[in-house]
Amino acid sequence: MPDVLRGRAPAKVNLVLEVLGTRDDGFHEIDTIFQELALADEVTASFGGHTGVVIDGPFAAGTPADATNLAWCAAELLARRTGASTDGLGISITKHIPPAGGLGGGASDAATTLRLLATVWPEATPPVLTEVAAAIGSDEAFFLGGGTARGTGRGEHVAPCRPLPPHDVVLFVPPFSIERKTARMFAALDRHRFDRGGMAARFFAEPPHRFASEDVCNAFERVAFELFPALAGLWQELEARTGSAVRLAGAGPTLFWIGPAGSGGDIARAAAGAACRVIPTRTAPAR
Q1: In the chain, which residues fall in CATH 3.30.230.10?
Q2: Tell me, what's the pLDDT at 3?
């Protein structure tokens, strides 16, 4: 067994996110198109030393470094499922993805941890990884493969799409979020009409060659200002500065722009000075 394993844990945006209704299990039925980004955390698994989680990096604040960390939850559940042990397992995460921002950083860290441990725990077969990923959360299964993919159910049923051609993406990260964000966003949606569906299905059937912010569909935009009142002003400022539409990333509050490869730099420069962190990145293919 190697002493150290390393892997990238990429961010994502949802190009389409339709919320179709409530489910008997308390979750919501969704139909979504995930898109992996080049922006990524760095995950290291080490063996035979300190047991637990260590967090560093520019977005370490707000990321738990205890047993509630999703990467550690994934490791413990996989150990129980395979008969392995987490004694002496250390997980280090360098956070480049803003936490609680709608970019899937915690879920991606968990999925990368599963992929790393599968290289040294023989019982961690692909079906077991998929089962554990779905048990941890709704986005983890997507991050096992990445690229461009459709997620159905509560997001855990994943089907790869034809890859989206390279696009630039610029993220706008506001200096605020809320506790229990995703649950509260879904609860707010319950007071509105659910989506009829069909947009994610059309994307999956005929993936576009070009995609722009104006093409994004995200049900959470209907309730974003209810939970993030300060987001409206930032949204308007960014669109005024860039002259282009911006959209909500997942359950927010991160906003993003997507457009032709090579044009993201102009958008990022135009947004400089706005009351947010500006992070240029790009789409990434499946691994």
Answers
A1: 4-160
A2: 85
| CATH 3.30.70.890, domain 167-282, yes or no | yes
pTM of the model: 0.95
Question: Is 139 among the residues known to form the active site?
Answer: yes
31, 41, 139, 195: which is the annotated catalytic residue?
139
Distance, CA of 78 to CA of 76 (rounded, Å): 5
Residue ranges of the chain assigned to CATH 3.30.70.890? 167-282
Residues 49-84: tens digit of each pLDDT: 889 999 999 999 989 999 999 999 999 999 999 999
**What number is the average pLDDT over the span 196-203?**
96
Check 12, 41, 95, 195 and give the catalytic one.
12
Average the pLDDT over 204-221 and give the result. 96
What's the pLDDT tens digit per position in 145-199? Answer: 999 999 999 999 999 999 999 999 999 999 998 889 999 999 999 999 999 999 9
CATH of the domain spanning 4-160, picked from 3.30.1360.140, 3.30.230.10, 3.40.190.10, 2.170.150.70: 3.30.230.10
